[in-house]
Write a structure and sequence with these properties.
The complex is a heterotrimer of chains A (89), B (179) and C (104). Chain A is an all-alpha fold and 89 residues long. Chain A has one domain. Chain A is built from three helices and no strands. With 179 residues, chain B is mostly helical. Helix content of chain B is 60%, strand content 11%. A three-stranded antiparallel β-sheet of chain B has the order 1-3-2. The radius of gyration of chain B is 22 Å and the shape is elongated. Chain C has one domain. Chain C is built from three helices and no strands. The chains are: A mainly alpha (89), B mainly alpha (179), C mainly alpha (104).
């Protein structure tokens, strides 16, 4: 069973490498934000799979925290690009 | 069985309810299988949870408990089959995008606008989320005064199923009693 | 190989296939709005399938509840983040691709 998790982990890691082409080359700001969001999503899955390979179940807590922080980061950047400022008072 | 209209601004009840839910959640995540030798151990283990739950409930009690609502239990009972229908639509949406990526169907994007009869906050957000999870469409903007949606569709087929058929408007209107 | 191992392997393979499809769509589609369609839907379902595969492999314990929380949170938060980015691009004035234009 550990061979299955190793194969899935290698597939997801190579997908992250392919996705960074869009992060470097994508014309404009928005394509780069989308690529960063996708890399963050795949990193959460990769954390859980690595937690299964080396048999430590504490990695799932780290993945839960990282999901919340990545979601907050996306919303903050979208709000800043739309308005030009963060705090309108 | 319908619930009567809740009064607004009941501060102590909101704080106590938020504290109970936060502490139960902490106990579920952290202290499920702790080996307890004597009752003094329970207090040592859960003191951090009580402190964290008090701080969080004092900061966020206004957002967590809604200050007014009508017929809450009836809406909740109709909401659960709608969630099941939506999970099936997510699966269909991903198969549709996979067909467009590999070249079986074509890509021809357009932008459409339409009006609905929904007015409350929760109904507008639920309908916008459902449009995003349906094959071929994503919500761009919502105007709360007229219930107006601006939607980006990826081909002519999914765009027609929103404006001409109107299956999803009828379902959401049935859940929230068409407000 | 037990029956539970075979079922979990099927879910993991399906999830990995959908993630590869999402990345190919990110490179192949001609516009920002269509790329948002591809990643917002394929990535969410691929992640849910992989986490369900891990849950079936584990059995019934505390770790299953934590995995269920991760997948339920991402089911609500993934499309909402995508919608926020799309609204920011539309209001700022990014041009929409019609059929027959140049790739942008």
């Amino acid at each position: 069973m550990i061979i299955t998790f190793l194969v899935v982990g290698i597939i997801i890691a190579s997908t992250i490498l392919v996705c960074s082409y869009r992060a470097i080359y994508g014309p404009g700001t928005f394509n780069r934000i989308v690529a960063a969001n996708v890399i963050g999503t795949k990193a959460i899955v990769l954390l859980i799979v690595v937690g299964y390979i080396i048999e430590r179940p504490q990695f799932i807590d780290i993945a839960l925290m990282y999901a919340v922080i990545a979601f907050m980061g996306t919303i903050i950047i979208a709000k800043y690009v739309e308005r030009g400022e963060l705090c309108s008072r | 069985m319908d619930m009567a209209v809740m009064e607004r601004g009941n501060k102590t009840f909101s704080i106590i309810l938020t504290f109970c839910i936060m502490f139960a959640f902490w106990m579920l995540l952290s202290a499920w299988t702790v080996y307890l030798v004597e009752p003094y151990d329970l207090f040592i283990v859960s003191s951090k949870g009580i402190l964290a739950a008090i701080i969080v409930s004092f900061l966020t009690y206004e957002i967590f408990v809604p200050s007014r609502g009508e017929n809450v239990i009836l809406k909740l009972r109709r909401f659960i089959p709608y969630v099941g229908w939506e999970l099936w639509q997510i699966y269909l949406a991903t198969i549709d995008v996979a067909k467009r990526v590999y070249g079986i169907l074509e890509v021809d994007p357009q932008i459409i606008e339409f009006d609905t009869t929904l007015r409350s906050d929760f109904a507008l957000v639920t309908f916008g989320n459902s449009i995003t999870l349906t094959p071929g469409t994503i919500t761009i903007d919502i105007e709360p005064e007229r219930g107006r949606y601006i939607v980006h569709a990826i081909a002519k087929g999914p765009a027609d199923s929103l404006t001409v058929d109107q299956t999803m408007q009828k379902k959401v209107g049935h859940v929230f009693m068409e407000e | 190989m037990l029956a539970i191992d075979v079922v979990a392997t099927m879910f993991l393979a399906a999830g990995a296939f959908f993630m590869i499809t999402g990345t190919i769509g990110l490179l192949k589609f001609p516009d920002f709005y269509t790329r948002m369609h591809a990643t917002g839907k394929c990535d969410t379902l691929g992640q849910i399938l992989i986490i369900v595969g891990c849950m079936i492999y584990e059995g019934f314990s505390l770790i299953t509840i934590k995995l269920l929380l991760v997948s339920a949170f991402y089911l609500l938060a993934g499309p909402a983040g995508g919608h926020a980015l799309m609204k920011a691009a539309y209001v700022t004035g990014l041009p929409v691709w019609k059929k027959g234009d140049k790739r942008m």
